[in-house]
Amino acid sequence: MNQLKLDQNFKAYEEAKKLVPGGVLGIRRPYNFVEGEFPIFFKEGKGSHVIDLDNNEYIDYLCAYGPIILGYRETEVDEAVIAQIRDKGFCFSLTQDYQNRLAEKMKELIPCSEMTVFVKTGSDATTCAIRLARGYTEKKKVLRCGYHGWHDWCVEVKGGIPEKLYEDIHEFEYNNLSSLEALLKEHDNDTACIIITPFGHPLAHEMEEPNPGFLQDVKDLAAKYNTVLIFDEIRTGFRMSIGGAQKYYGVTPDIAVFGKAMANGYSISAITGKAEIMQQGEKNVFISSTFFPNSLGYVAALKTIEILERDQVLDKVWEKGNYLINGIKKAMEKYPVGAILSGVAPMMFITFEKDKDKIYKQKRTDFYTQVIRRKVFLQPFHHGYVCYRHTDEDLDYTIGAIEESLKYIKEKY
Asked: pTM for the whole thing?
C-alpha cells in the first residue's frame, strides 16, 4: 500500500512551526503518530469521517480524543447551539439558567450527583475536584491512579513545574489494592482524596477493566481512612453508560468528574458529587472563570444527552464496538503477530507484545503505517473510540484494513 499524498499537511506544518511551539501542541504532534505517514491537519468532518488538507478521507476512531460520541457536525446539536448564538446569546455578566437544567440532568443520571460545578476542560475538572476535597477534609495528600490532565499537580512532563507543587501527590497502581493501602497507611491522617480512573486507560499501555471487587475495595479504603473518593470519568462518562463507569460497575464515589462525550465536542466539563463536599465551592474554595458560565456548552450537553437517551445511543455504540472487537480478534487469530487488543466496546486499543529486542516497536510502527495508508485513523499511543455514526460499512472496512495490516506484519516478520 502506497504512502498517502500529504504535501499540503507538511506545508502547513512547516508554517505552523514558525508560529506555534512545535507546530501543534501535545499529543497531536506528529511524533505521537508515525511521522511522515499521518496527516497533521484536518479541515472538516462529518459523521464518522474526517478529511485532511490534502483531501484524504478517513474513518476516524479517535473521535477528537473522545468528545465525539454522536458524530462530527451532528445537526441537532449544532442547530441548538446556533439558535442559542442567534436568538439569545451565550456570554453575559450573569449566568443563564441552562446551568440549572443541566445540573438537574446530572442529578437524575449520575449516581453520585447531588450538586454540580461546571467548568470547561478535563484538567479544570480534576483540579477543581481535588481542591474541593482538600477544602472539605482540610488535608493535603492526593493519591492518584491514571491520567488526570496537564495541570501542575498531575502532568507527566515536569518541565517548568517546581517540585513543591506536586510533592504531596502520590501514585498507586491500578488493580493493585496493596499499593493504595500502603500509601494510605503512610499518610494516614493527611490524605485528602483518592482520584482514580474507574476503567484503566494508562498512557500508551493496554487498557484494563477493574478486577472483581477492586473499585468497591477502593471505596471501602477511602471510607476507612476518612478520605474523599473521586472517579475521573472524563473518558468513561456518557460513553460506558449514561451514568458513567460508576453506574456500569455499580460503585458510587463521593465525587466524579465528567467531560468529553457529554457535549459531543463542545467545551464543557463537570464536577459532581455529594452536596456536603461540593458546597465547599460556595465560600471556602474559590472557583471562577470568565468563560465557565458560557451557555453554549450547557446547550450542547443538554441536546447531546437528550439524543443519547432518546435514541438509545450507547446501546448501539456497544453493539457496534463489540462487532468491531470481534472482527479484530478474528483477524488477530488468523495472523498471530503479537498484537494485543484491549478495552471494551466503546473504546479499545491495539498494542504489541513487548520483547527483549524491542522488535514490537517496529511492528507497531509498521502496523499503524499500513492502517493509516488504508485511511483508517487510529493512534499508536492512544486508544480509539466508537461513535454512534460509525456505519456497518465503516466497521467492515476497518476490520478488513486491520486484517490486511496484520497480514503485512506476518509476512514481514
From this structure: 0.97
